[in-house]
Amino acid sequence: MKNKILLRLIMYFVTSITIFALIIGIIFSTLFSKHNIDVHKAELEKRAVSIADTLSEMFDGGMRLGMMGGYGAYLRFIEDIAMSDVWIVDRNLDRITFGRGRSGRTGITYRDLPGGAEEVILDAVEGKTSFSESFSAFLETPTITAATPIITRNGEVIGVVLLHSQVSGVNEITGGGLTILFFSMTAAVLVSVFVAAALSSRFTKPLGKMKKAAMQISGGDFSVKTGVNQFDEIGELAVILDDMTDRLEASTKERTKLEKLRRDFIANISHELRTPVTVIRGSLEALCDGVVTDAAKVADYHEQMLSESLYLERLVSDLLDLSRLQNSDFAIEMQEVDLKDIADDIIRGMKRIAEQKGVKLILTHDNERFLTIGDYDRLRQMLIVILDNAIKFSSEGMTVNIAISKNESSINIIIRDEGPGINPDDLPHIFERFYKQRSEQNKAGTGLGLAIVKQIADRHGITIKVTSSQGKGTEFVFAFQTASMSQK
User: Does some domain include residue 19?
Assistant: First the structure.
């Protein structure tokens, strides 16, 4: 079902308004009813006191309580004006005087009064004005009765005025107020439906955009954006979703690149393995079939098979080294080493190869220690690969320089040759697997040496900078961390 959240939000909003309206209605009806009763009592008390004061003046003028003819007309007049029953109870509580008797009852004695009436009359006799609803059943209608004393000029209580007032008018006023409140709240709820729909739509619209974007992402389109720009939790979610698409897109590109590298690797390794295997197989078939019988040729075939076998051995060894170094679980023995000792070691090992080719090796450094943290054998392997390439691409009479220097932030080993240099188009790819120059000097190379160098450097946190000029030589700069920095 579409717009489920929108409908829920509208329902929640309207439900909240409705509950609020009910609570307000209950509170309003209670307080408004109480207020009306209080106002009615105050008005009733005011009228009762006024009647009592008038009667007090009459009695002070010589009229006696019980002379109906004296104040009966006044009572009837008051009843007509006040639309209420007025009773007079004498001090001795044995006589009740009526006006016209709007209640329709006459000849009522004190003993006929309902339970609870005596208390309010006795309070009035004591000089206090009080109220009671105990006359309601007696008068057969909801009634509030105000009882107030008739006090003469000299402070004597000579009787009690009972002023009865029906509360139907009060209830009508309260009912009218509640009716107005009901229609007002109903209108508010209806308006809230439209307001809730507008606000909820504003809330769900960005969610719809994110849903659409998520569906496109699910379909493999990682270039999509939500297009939501809000400074709230929804906006933060949209930013996270956009960031996720960026990461997925980058990951997809990286995966595509890795897949291409994998295919290229398989193709390259297949090619690199097929060539020596084919040569060895062809030579063996020729020898086994007796095609080659001349001793010199047989020896040449044996030498060729040995050369190809050595190439296969070197290729497999390089592949194993590269595979181990690329595995993060493969541990290398990190310890404090002196790069000067490694440099001296590789010079001794490569000196004979350089002499055979007529290339001179020169090592320069200050007479101090160049300490770093690393695996001695792996660092030696890394530098031998670079030095071997420098010798390989150098001609007779050329010089290969190895320099070690130190500054505040690093130890630098620079290996510089005077060979033909590297083509600028090849320079960005020299550390890729099986990428090698197709030249006479490099025909025995596997294309894995510099890839191994890069992996060893990465495992040690070494940065490599390569500069080359065709016809002028190549320079490799290795920047090592000092031992103190590596241990931090």
Answer: yes
Cβ-contact 375, 333 below 8 angstroms: yes
Give the C-alpha separation, 377 to 375, whole Å.
6
Strand partners, 479: 412, 463
Same domain, yes or no: 309 and 337: no
**430-445 confidence digits (pLDDT tens):** 887 766 655 544 445 5
Q: List residues bridging with 400 in a β-sheet.
A: 361
The count of other CB atoms within 10 Å of the CB of residue 94 is 10
Give all strands (DSSP E) within 174-277, no chain letters. Answer: none
Residue 373 shares a structural domain with residue 295: no
Distances 353 to 396, 410, 441, 448 between C-alpha atoms, Å: 12, 31, 14, 20
pLDDT in tens, 404-413: 998 888 899 9
- Is residue 388 located within the same domain as residue 310? no
For 352-385, b/e burial (b = at least 16 CB within 10 A) is eebeeeebebeeebeeeebbbbbbbebbbbbbbb
Residue with tokens 């031998």: 384
Cα 217 to Cα 286: distance, rounded to the nearest angstrom: 60
Give yes or no: residues 141 and 257 share one domain: no
Element (H, E) at 214: helix 168-218
For residue 27, which of 143, 185, 169 has the smallest C-alpha distance? 185
70 and 139, same domain (yes or no): yes
Helix (H, G, I), strand (E, B) or coil at 337: strand
Q: Provide the domain limits for residue 265.
A: 233-324
Residue 210 within a domain: no
What integer pLDDT is reported at residue 69 of this predicted model?
A: 44
Distance, CA of 199 to CA of 168 (rounded, Å): 45
What's the total number of domains in the chain?
A: 3
Helices (H) and strands (E) in the chain, counts: 11, 12
- How many Å apart are CA 301 and CA 288, to the nearest integer? 12
What does the alpha-carbon distance between residue 157 and residue 132 come to, in Å, rounded to a whole number? 20
- What residue ranges of the chain have pLDDT lower than 50? 1, 67-69, 102-104, 440-443
Q: Please indicate, yes or no, whether residues 381 and 477 belong to a single structural domain of this protein.
A: yes
Q: Please, which residues bridge with residue 149 across strands? A: 160
Q: Does a structural domain hold residue 481?
A: yes
Nearest-angstrom CA–CA distance, 471 and 114: 131
- 237 domain-assigned: yes
Burial of 72 (0-12, 13-18, 19+ CB in 10 A): middle
Mind giving me the DSSP string for 90-136? Answer: ETTS--EEESS-TTS--S--GGGSPTTHHHHHHHHHTT--EEE-TTH
